[in-house]
Amino acid sequence: MDQSPTSPHSGKVEQPESVVVEQAELEAEQQHVDRVYGRVAEAARSASRIAVEGHQRAQAQNVGRVREEEQTGLYERDVLVFAAARRIAELDAEHEGLVFGRLDSDHGEDKPAVERAEDLESLYVGRIGVRDAEYEPLVIDWRAPAAEPFYRATAADRLAVVRRRVLRNKGARVVGIEDDLLAPERAPEDLPVMGEGALMASLSRARGHTMRDIVATIQAEQDLAIRAPARGVTIIGGGPGTGKTVVALHRAAYLLYSDRRRFERGGVLVVGPSAAFMAYIERVLPSLGENTVSLRAVGELVDGVRATAVDEADAAAIKGSLRMRGVLSRAARDRVPAAPTSLRVFVGGATIELDANQLDNVRRNALRRTPRNRAASEARKGLVAALWSRFPDDLRNGVYADRESFGDIVVDLPAYRSFFASWWPTLSPQTVLRWLGDPRRLTRWARNELGPAEVDALAAAVRSTDQFTIADVALLDELSHLLGRPPVAEPGKDEEFDWLEGLSDGVNEVLTTSERRARAAAAADADEPEEYAHVLVDEAQDLSPMQWRMVTRRGPQASWTIVGDPAQSSWPDPDEARQAMESMLSHLQRHAFRLSTNYRNSAEIYAFAGEVIRRQIPDADLPNAVRSTGVEPEHRVFDAAKVAEAAADAAGELLQLVEGTVGVIVPPGLRPAVDATLAELNNPRVVALTPLESKGLEYDAVVVVEPDRIVSDTLGGVRALYVVLTRATQRMITVNSTTQWLP
Ligand SMILES: Nc1ncnc2c1ncn2[C@@H]1O[C@H](COP(=O)(O)OP(=O)(O)OP(=O)(O)O)[C@@H](O)[C@H]1O
Predict the structure, then answer these.
(1) CA-proximal residue: ligand 1, atom 29 (nearest)
(2) Is the pLDDT of residue 193 over 90?
(3) Of 83, 357, 600, 632, which one's alpha carbon is 20 to 30 angstroms from that of 591?
(4) What average pLDDT is seen over the chain?
(5) Within a domain: residue 458?
(6) Residue 501 near residue 420 (C-beta atoms within 8 A)
(7) Confidence at residue 360, expressed as pLDDT on a 0 to 100 scale
């Protein structure tokens, strides 16, 4: 949608009778909106009737050029119309109306222009499609093909649209109208045009703590990315504030609509950088009527772990590097610490012993082709074979005549059983990851991969806390892949795998076969990585190579949407991360989209941020910021000891100047001091956060504390500062003890 602030038609109705015209228009639109709500209410009263109607409509749609999967989508949506009543209640009564757009079209350039407004064809666009009793559309779903011109029409290519209208709603009430006249020369005399343009109105509004949908004002280049076919990998690039996140979420809603069967059954996963980010975006999909998409932060992709802690920069860099693959693979195959180093059994009149070397050989052989947790029976066979080879020839008779019956007796001996339980326990990824805290063993696993300083840093990071960090989660996932799941007992094959084996305390419990199967199934359920039909990765520039491995395991058969901006990467080597992604997805076809307009920052704030990043990355992809406020960012310099206080003062001033939120972004080391000074403001509109936490979020006003330290203390350096400098929509104040960082 091309709604520039200088649109030649904005303000056209600022004439004496404008108020009267506006009132009349609002009333007319309200009537239509009332009909839609009335129809939905009626539908809610008779769900079963609607199911039948939906079916008939799907059949009626059989004529024409509707693709099969769209039909399915349409049919299922119609069946679900009755659920719309419930959704209306869920919509944020302040902002999210059911019907938000209207198109008035003629018949294109090769037909004469129409004379009267009533001769234009009008079509309403909304969050769901609703038809009247005669199956005439009262409003069409924003994702339907017929709604495309609402988003794609521009003055240059108007797609037969004469006027595009956006309705501003408070719940079911129409409170404002923003028009966009695409073909002034073809507009009938009596066609009213009003408002400043919906986009500008929407961009200038105060921000809250959660992101809102943009269905009413999706722009043409965004619409292309939203509706791109699902196959292969769709890459959506663009600088800060270009709508990458919000576009990705609308794309998820679109994919569900276009092929509901495939994506609802197969699942759609959205992966984002942090729990705070997931909370920020979690309302968008429900407001678009979609509740089935899984949203997970990268720290939550492994079941049972919800990591929010962040490593120090050096440890994070090591944990994310592909070199960890070799380290973890060696750890997963090594001896269990504190496991017995010899096995001694008394059997058939002889005492037989295996020493540490012999045990190591058995272990290595068992692991040659099978991951550890699935190799218990190989290990058992190896032990029996080694013991048998040491069993004296002259004793090989009776029940000890052959290896098999010898083995049956050996594995039942209490000494063997207790040995095996501690020598070959079922290993959890968590257990093995903890082993990396021992620098001596880590040095062995890290040979040729990590230098001594890196080994020390990694071991110290592992020992420093018993919580898992976000970077650990990818390591846990790698380990669970390397260790394998314990085999699930199959009917008739129970004896293949003994569940008692893994219990090191040797508890003797008696399980029935069905209990055992139920347990096995539950274990399998818990460990099985979930797989999805479509995976959408936001802030993809931040994924480390190890995280890419984890994420791609979630969709071995999936199609992908990957959203990011390399200039905002918090990974020290963005090229390495990009290569990791490419190698994981190289077999898939790609389509790339680039978003070119920054809708978040005022032009003044973005001009400054752009200058900062250009110094570091001369060819960074800088978007155009469209909205000017006339307010330049302000840079204040204080003594280092006064900075926390100065930050709170700046936040206090900004609270007076903006209606919505104020974000105070501080380097992690200064966080406690700034938290303390901000506490005195005691205002829920202010939040303090670290540069990493600010990823993807936005505030009306931002205070940036000690930019120099943001650069030196965060993994992404200047790129992290660029993220921070692009969070404010209206105002920004920086508070520093130096001025060196200024461009
Ligand atoms: N077409 C649009 N209409 C109204 N608002 C929009 C539109 N496109 C984007 N926005 C708004 O611009 C802001 C930035 O969008 P978003 O967070 O998706 O950008 P981004 O490209 O992911 O940013 P970053 O890379 O900096 O995290 C949001 O408030 C979003 O709602």
Answers:
(1) 600
(2) no
(3) 600
(4) 85
(5) no
(6) yes
(7) 96
Ligand 1 geometric centre to CA of 277 (Å):
14
Contact 340, 417 (CB under 8 A): no
The torsion angles phi and psi of 254, rounded to 5 degrees, stand at -65, -45
Q: What DSSP string describes 377-405?
A: HHHHHHHHHHHHHTS-GGG--GGGSSHHH
**Which residue puts its alpha carbon closest to atom 13 of ligand 1?**
600
* CATH code of the domain covering residue 283: 3.40.50.300
Cα-to-centroid distance, 242 and ligand 1 (Å):
5
Q: Which atom of ligand 1 is nearest to the CA of 216?
A: 3
Print the domain residue range for 379: 337-426
- What are residue 717's phi and psi, to 5 degrees? 60, -130
Token pair belonging to 108: 């294109």
Q: Tell whether ligand 1 has an atom less than 6 A from the beta carbon of residue 223.
A: no
Q: Is 10 in the pocket of ligand 1 (CB under 6 A)?
A: no
Q: Which two tokens stand for residue 369?
A: 């082709």
**How many CB atoms sit inside 10 A of residue 521's CB?**
12
For the question of whether the overall pTM of this predicted structure is more than 0.80, the answer is yes
Q: Is residue 501 part of a domain?
A: no
Instruction: For ligand 1, pick from 202, 219, 245 the residue to mutate: most ligand atoms within 8 Å of CB.
Output: 245
Query: Candidates 217, 219, 246: which one to mutate for ligand 1, based on the most atoms within 8 Å of Cβ?
Result: 246
Nearest-Å Rg of the Cα atoms of the chain is: 32
pLDDT digits 0-9 by tens, 618-640: 988 899 998 999 999 999 999 99
Tell me: pLDDT of 570 over 90.
Answer: no
Share of the chain above pLDDT 90, in %: 60
Write out pLDDT tens, residues 53-111.
Answer: 555 555 555 444 444 444 444 444 444 554 555 556 555 555 578 899 999 999 888 88
Side chain identity at 32, as an amino acid letter? H
Q: Minimal CA–CA distance to 564: which of 549, 550, 574, 552?
A: 574
